[in-house]
Each structure stands twice: as structure tokens, then as C-alpha cells.
Design a protein that fits this description.
Layout lengths: L1 H15 L16 E3 L6 E3 L3 E8 L2 E6 L4 E5 L13 E3 L5 E3 L3 E8 L2 E9 L3 E6 L13
Antiparallel strand pairs: 1-10, 2-7, 3-4, 4-5, 5-10, 6-8, 8-9
């Protein structure tokens, strides 16, 4: 009986232990950014002009007008690497937190959906160094 009580106490202690969560520091991912407003739960799919995977669990969405929203995927996404392509389905004209993005794999000249990852909130950001983070122009 004492062993059962000790075991139950250990379970309670473990269940109260802090859980390591992925770092969601906006500036921790390159290129560095600063937050310029409140996070949004959804983006209008028609306004998304470009997506850029920045690494494990981080995607930048550029919308009409050049505004950038950084998305920290809800549970990270270790399969995503800087520069990977993604795909997603749009329902109702918006892309929202909790919806799924897929890594896009290129096999033998064809594309297949890779592992799925859930979106987090869309955080409006501005690149810290606008000159060096600007897209390169051919010939430069």
C-alpha cells in the first residue's frame, strides 16, 4: 500500500512539473524582427502574396502592401527547414490559427504533401534590418 501511495505521489508531482515549450521569441529567428502590433488569429487568403519558411516551426507570410506576419507553428515543426516550400488548404477565404500546413516534398519531379503542422497566431512584424533582409535583385 505504501508503494502505491508513493507511486501516486510521484505521478502527481510529474504532472505538475513545467513542460519545456519551444521558444517563441520573435527575435530568436533569422532574420530578426520586431513586433509592430497585436497578433491575429486569421489572414485573408487572398491577401497572402508570399510565404517564407524560416526554420523549425516559423513561417513569414507577406500580404498585400508588404506587411509581414510571422507565424510560430503551434507545436513547432522539426521537418520544416529554412527555405522549404509549404502548401495549405483555404476554407472560407481565410487561413487561421489551428489550420494545417504541409511541407511540400519534391519526388522525381512531382510534388507530394509531407508532414502536417498546425498554424499558430499571425504576429505582425517588421524586419529589424530592412536593407540586408530585402529580397536580392538579380545581377547584384
Amino acid at each position: 500500500m505504501k508503494k502505491a501511495a508513493a507511486f501516486a505521489s510521484a505521478i502527481v508531482l510529474v504532472s505538475c512539473a513545467p513542460v519545456d515549450e519551444p521558444s517563441k521569441s520573435v527575435a530568436a529567428v533569422e532574420p530578426a524582427v520586431k513586433v509592430i502590433g497585436e497578433a491575429k488569429g486569421c489572414l485573408s487568403a487572398g491577401s497572402i502574396q508570399n510565404t517564407q519558411v524560416r526554420g523549425d516551426g516559423v513561417i513569414d507570410f507577406t500580404v498585400t502592401g508588404g506587411k509581414v506576419y510571422r507565424n510560430y507553428l503551434a507545436n513547432g515543426c522539426p521537418v520544416l527547414r529554412n527555405g522549404d516550400a509549404i502548401t495549405y488548404e483555404v476554407k472560407g477565404g481565410t487561413l487561421c490559427s489551428g489550420e494545417i500546413v504541409y511541407e511540400l516534398d519534391n519526388y522525381s519531379g512531382g510534388f507530394d504533401r509531407g508532414p502536417a503542422c498546425g498554424l499558430g497566431d499571425f504576429v505582425p512584424v517588421e524586419y529589424a534590418n530592412k536593407v540586408s533582409d530585402a529580397p536580392m535583385i538579380m545581377g547584384e
